[in-house]
Amino acid sequence: MGCICSRETLMINSRKYYVVEHLGEGGFSTVDLIEDSHTGKTYAVKKIICHGEEDQNIAMKEVEYHGLVRHPNIIECIDSVLTDRPNPVLNSTSEVMIVLPYYKGEQTVVLYRRSVHKEYMNPVEMLNMFVHICEGVKAFHEAKPEPLAHRDLKTANILLADDRTPVIMDLGSVAVARVKICGSSEAQQLQDLASERCSMPYRAPELFNVESYCMIDERTDIWSLGCILYAMCYFKSPFDVVYERGDSVALAVISGNISFPESTPFDNEIHELILYMLKVNPMERPYIYSVIEKTHDVLTKLEVKA
């Protein structure tokens, strides 16, 4: 055992934490497991390295969105701090740290059943879980003063609490949901942003090829939910295989051709629910309220059959 005094420490708003281990990193941040020096309770801390004012504003927006959207199915921000100190080693101007609950093993919603052994979820249990995910998404779409979209919903961003409650994490891509695009410059800007922050196998068609004059709204998340439910059934998004082959995900998504395995334990109603969300034309795609209602209808039918 190493001496406790040699452990890396973090001060977040006068509260002292010990760094226990490195948990992972993404394109814009790192995540560490930390321990409260006073209570011994463990948390995750997301560290966002900022290389300028724009980065800092984006990171602080993430903190702001945590405050705007509070829901049992969305990860809670326990504390946050902006450290406004340049770091020449990292070529950074500042750092934002967000303290979050730590979910042991960070088990995602798909790995709840081992995909390696093709252990399918019970359909009723799966749809009950999916309803909880939808309720979390609804909280974004109902945000005040204006609706928000998560923009990076995927199975890796949905963790399971100890009681199997799904929790949506990573608010780094959250944005104002309804965007009016006027001109090719604005279209390219949004397309570049989506390319940077929205995972390809779960990204809505309208974000691959943003039209010069159009309206983008919260239904980008509905497409992602369709991909998530497909993955809950069959362990991968319908476009993961395309991505793994190295083929064009954009072409596959825009074509909207969704196929299901011939051998399946799931009723046709679940496939229809998935297709209900995976409409290529966003104007034909339902809003979250209709998705929740239709999911409840399918659940009722399955429970009657059971």
UniProtKB/TrEMBL annotation:
<dbReference type="InterPro" id="IPR011009">
    <property type="entry name" value="Kinase-like_dom_sf"/>
</dbReference>
<feature type="domain" description="Protein kinase">
    <location>
        <begin position="17"/>
        <end position="299"/>
    </location>
</feature>
<keyword id="KW-0808">Transferase</keyword>
<dbReference type="InterPro" id="IPR052239">
    <property type="entry name" value="Ser/Thr-specific_kinases"/>
</dbReference>
<dbReference type="InterPro" id="IPR000719">
    <property type="entry name" value="Prot_kinase_dom"/>
</dbReference>
<keyword id="KW-0067">ATP-binding</keyword>
<protein>
    <recommendedName>
        <fullName>non-specific serine/threonine protein kinase</fullName>
        <ecNumber>2.7.11.1</ecNumber>
    </recommendedName>
</protein>
<dbReference type="InterPro" id="IPR008271">
    <property type="entry name" value="Ser/Thr_kinase_AS"/>
</dbReference>
<keyword id="KW-0547">Nucleotide-binding</keyword>
<dbReference type="GO" id="GO:0004674">
    <property type="term" value="F:protein serine/threonine kinase activity"/>
</dbReference>
<keyword id="KW-0418">Kinase</keyword>
<keyword id="KW-0723">Serine/threonine-protein kinase</keyword>
<dbReference type="GO" id="GO:0005794">
    <property type="term" value="C:Golgi apparatus"/>
</dbReference>
<dbReference type="GO" id="GO:0005524">
    <property type="term" value="F:ATP binding"/>
</dbReference>
<dbReference type="Pfam" id="PF00069">
    <property type="entry name" value="Pkinase"/>
</dbReference>
